Amino acid sequence: MTKDRGGDVRLSGISKTYGSFTAVEPLDLTVPQGSFFALLGASGCGKTTTLRMIAGLEEPTSGTVSLGDQDVTRLPPYKRPVNTVFQSYALFPHLDIFENVAFGLRRRGIKSVKKQVEEMLDLVQLGEQARKKPHQLSGGQQQRVAVARALINHPKVLLLDEPLGALDLKLRRQMQLELKRIQTEVGITFIHVTHDQEEAMTMADTVAVMNAGRVEQLGSPADLYENPQTTFVANFLGTSNLIEAEVDTHSGDEIVLTAGGGKLTLPQARCSAPTTTGGKVVVGVRPEKITLTHADDAGDIPEGRNRITGKIADTSFIGVSTQYVIDSPVCPEFEVYAQNIDRDTRLAPGAEVVLHWSPAHTFGLDAAQSLLAGTVGSAGVETAEPEAGVTVR
Amino acid sequence: MTFVRWFKRHLVVIAGLLTLGYLLLPNVVVTVFSFNDPKGRFNYEWQRFSTDAWTDPCGVADLCGSLSLSLRIAAWATLGATVLGTLIAFALVRYRFRARGAVNSLIFLPMAMPEVVMAASLLTLFLNMGVQLGFWTILIAHIMFCLSFVVTAVKARVMSMDPSLEQAAQDLYAGPLQTFLRVTLPIAAPGIAAGALLAFALSFDDFIITNFNAGATVTFPMFVWGSAQRGTPVQINVIGTAMFIVAVLLVLAGMVVGNRRRRHTA
Amino acid sequence: MTTLTEAPPPLAPGPAATDEKPPRRRGRLTPYWLLLPGILWLLLFFALPLVYQASTSVQTGSLEEGYKVTWHFATYWDALSAYWPQFMRSVLYAGTATALCLLLGYPLAYLIAFRAGRWRNLILILVIAPFFTSFLIRTLAWKTILADGGPVVGALGSLHLLDVTSTLGITAGDRVLATPLAVVCGLTYNFLPFMILPLYTSLERIDGRLHEAAGDLYAKPFTTFRKVTFPLSMPGVVSGTLLTFIPASGDYVNADLLGSTDTRMVGNVIQTQFLRTLDYPTAAALSFILMAAILLIVTLYIRKSGTEDLV
User: Fold this and answer.
1) How far is C301 from chain B (nearest CA, A)?
2) Does residue B131 share a domain with residue B39?
3) Is residue A373 part of a domain?
4) Are residues B222 and B250 in the same domain?
């Protein structure tokens, strides 16, 4: 199958400032045609502003927006082959569902809209509701109308601004799959703005993590999760245990580090920071990669694994897994998620344990960043005041 | 349950219904006395039942003429105040501009001013300008004092409107004019209608400002005022009762239609 | 009770200030064009007349020889000293009527907001519907209700209340009509809906769960009212009292139809001076004093009640 590349969205150096406040730093981004692309970040990180600049609802302070070969930077929204699903859905309350969906077609002077609208309503499984008013539908149905209303115009790009934010958790899961299905079916480029990292990872092929007006890292969900390049990404996507360590020796493809007296091994390829001997590096490992062994059985742990000793501070049972918080000299609140296969009853608060994991699951980050970047409650994440740099740990 | 406890529990309801009675008592009196056959010129004392006034509502000289004049003035004043007021409301909600505070004060002041002050000063202007008092001066005055109320009603509606609706229209290929006609105006319509209804009621029932600026022209409220001095015909009560009944029926019909439509589509 | 079992709205972080800017608009002059006709109308027929009246109030002369601006400020002093009883009466009657409106209107507004159930719309219609009968006709009906020897006078008389009110000077002998009581009764009646509707609007916004919460936290019904309901209805109380007091203080219809020469209010004086005596400077000075007094009272009141964002 040959793919027409003329539908790529290209942002070149676009930025947006309001007075002295910079919402989006100069940004270069290419979204390939047909992809499901997510802009992920906390509120105020500039993701919605970026989306609105693509839609034409916001004029960039600098830079250009191109769709394929066409520069659309100065085009008003009603002349752009781009449609948006708004956060509030913005369904016209005075029009019924049919007319809401037909709105764009009618504005472009298309007379016979009936067949198209009905097909589109069937696609989103709302064929029966055509003559209802928006307020008579449930949140999930309204959401699907908003998608149908935008998709019927066959835009080059569909922009989704937190489209699932107002739905409850179960419905959100269902709609995530539904949107993914629709995208696969119609093959249109979707650009999806969200602050929900699970949502972004479930739906998108490519995720751009934004923070303070910049893209921190761009990649496939698995790549971002397994190889975070910054502490922000490490903390914002899932949970990471971060340890400050010092570079001891290099041996082949591996770096040996010391942290709290113990030694840790890190593959050179998984370290995004320069590693000079004696320099500092932040070492990270995801909680589910770690195995917990009671201190009495420490001898059974295979050689070659990274290990840390500690004491269980707290456990919480959440069904499929148990989450442990461990006090360790290198990191005061080490998190470990263990699948509930065979539960060791000795692993209760107060128990001395050894945490160990494969060096291949370790990643290294530049030590010149805050270990707390991207955590809940830290600067810029889910807080009203970006200045509230509260130390949580 | 003892009576005292029952009374205490329902105290608010009893007091509220008494107030409602106080509000409706004059209407009851007006209705009852529309069937009176008074002795003498004044219709303040009950004599005996008669339907004469109901069968001949225009039987008093100038009464129906004043009524139709009031209706005409109210219609034009409503049109004028609604158009001008809606424009102002849109400007206030949708744009930032200098002199916003001054404009807001100019809108608010007529509502915070006793009618007699506005009436007297407007008359001063007309006298100084040598304007002939009559239909046009009444209309000018009515548009003036209805304007602020229309602005307030429309503003409230436009302010509660989700701004992303207009952005959605633009996103769906509607240009600025199309967006206004297809989305903004229909959604603001209930606010505009409420403002217009208020303007009509205010204009139709206005006495003080009209009395100052009418010259020899007689509107319906002025006719009633004059009759309080000269003698009150029963026909006044007939018209008052008819207006009350028509208003209640219209509102009830509107509610029934609204309910049925809701049930039908739900 | 479904509302109670529903999950509270998610505390999703609202889009930051930067995410919600009004759409940019082309054309800087558009707002001025929209404002122009209406504002011009208000300037010409509301503001300019006030200027004319200000100038009239400092003129001297006579109808025959014409008036000239002589900066004769003494007119103000003369008007005030000649008509201060009418001024005091206006403030007193309007103030009493406003207080009575609040006292009578609050239970009804509360009833509509919380206790009326499916009767709510009907009662609301009944509150508004009298508006459609000319207020002059309805005011004349009070002449019948309060007539000498009528049911109200009879009832008050048999309870010996008329003796009390006569001693207080609010009725005269065995009459209610043509007394202060009748005028205040008419004022209260005429402006009651202007009190009820704002009260209802602010009461209706109160979340019913707050009452349950207060009860849950050991507040007795009256305490709940005093500590929760009433404070939350303050915006309605303030705008209701203003909407009642301002027009009542300038009214002359009730004093004329239901009162006597002893119940004349400042509105009656302005009307007579303007339309009968044709003493324009005095009339202009009087209406300026009235306007100033009301603006002063309203400003003080709004300050005191601490709700400046009323309008």
Assistant:
1) 13
2) no
3) no
4) no
Judging contacts by C-beta atoms under 8 Å, the chain B residues touching residue C19 are none
- pLDDT digits over B106-115, tens only? 998 998 899 9
For B111, other C-beta atoms within 10 Å of its C-beta total 17
Residue A11 has φ and ψ, to the nearest 5°, of -105, 125
pLDDT of residue B132: 94
Shortest distance between the Cα of A40 and any Cα of chain B, in A, equals 22
Whether residues B68 and B165 share a domain: the answer is yes
- Full domain range(s) for residue A47: 5-226
- Residue A78 maps to which CATH number? 3.40.50.300
3-state secondary structure C140-168: HHHHHHCCCCCHHHHHHHHCCHHHHHHHH
Pairing of strands A21-31, A9-18: antiparallel
What is the spatial distance between Cα A160 and Cα A393, in angstroms, rounded to a whole number? Answer: 35
> CB-hemisphere CA count at 13 Å for C252?
25
What pLDDT is attached to residue A263? 87
User: Are residues A325 and A182 located together in one domain of the fold?
Assistant: no
* pLDDT value at residue B10: 87
Q: Show the tokens assigned to C256.
A: 């004329």
Please tell me the total count of domains within chain B: 2
Q: Of A226, A245, A269, which residue constitutes the final position of a domain?
A: A226
User: How far apart, in whole angstroms, are the C-alpha atoms of residue C282 and residue C77?
Assistant: 10
pLDDT at A133: 92
Domain end, chosen from A226, A243, A273, is at A226
Beta strands A82-85 and A157-161, pairing class:
parallel
Give the Cα separation of C258 and C144 in Å (integer): 10
| Stretch 70-129 of chain B: residues touching chain C, C-beta under 8 Å | 84-85, 87-88, 90-91, 94-95, 97, 103-104, 106-110, 112-118, 120-125, 127-128
Helices (H), C205-307: 208-216, 221-224, 230-232, 234-250, 253-258, 266-272, 280-305
- Could you tell me if A384 and A42 are in contact, meaning their C-beta atoms sit under 8 angstroms apart? no
Domain coverage including residue B21: 1-55+235-266
pLDDT at A5: 53
The ipTM (two decimal places) reads: 0.90
Pairing of strands A157-161, A189-194: parallel
Has residue B53 got a pLDDT over 90? Answer: no
Contact C183, C259 (CB under 8 A): yes
Q: Between β-strands A280-285 and A262-267, what pairing exists: parallel, antiparallel or unpaired?
A: unpaired
* The pair of three-digit structure tokens given for residue C94, joined into one six-digit string: 């309007």
- Residues B155, B203, single domain; the answer is yes
Contact C34 B167 (CB under 8 A): no
CATH for A261: 2.40.50.100
Listed residue (A223, A309, A222) closest to A264, CA to CA: A309
pLDDT in tens, A143-181: 999 999 999 999 999 999 998 887 888 888 888 988 898
Q: What would be the CATH architecture of the domain defined by C72-305?
A: Orthogonal Bundle (1.10)
Strands A189-194 and A36-40, bridge-based pairing: parallel
Residue C223 CA: distances (Å) to CA of A390, C107, C201, C217, C226: 40, 16, 22, 11, 5
Answer for the pair A159, A84: CB distance below 8 angstroms, yes or no. Answer: yes
- List the domain boundaries for chain C: 72-305
pTM strictly above 0.90: no
In chain A, the number of structural domains is 2
Q: Please say whether the dihedral angle defined by the alpha carbons of residues A217, A219, A222 and A227, taken in this order, is positive or negative.
A: negative
A18 interfacial to chain C (CB closer than 8 Å): yes
pLDDT tens digits along C283-302: 999 999 999 999 888 888 88
What residues in C contact B44, CB-CB < 8 Å? 140, 143-144, 147
Specify whether B93 is located in the same domain as B120.
yes
Residue A223 has pLDDT above 80, yes or no: yes
Tokens of C242: 């203003």
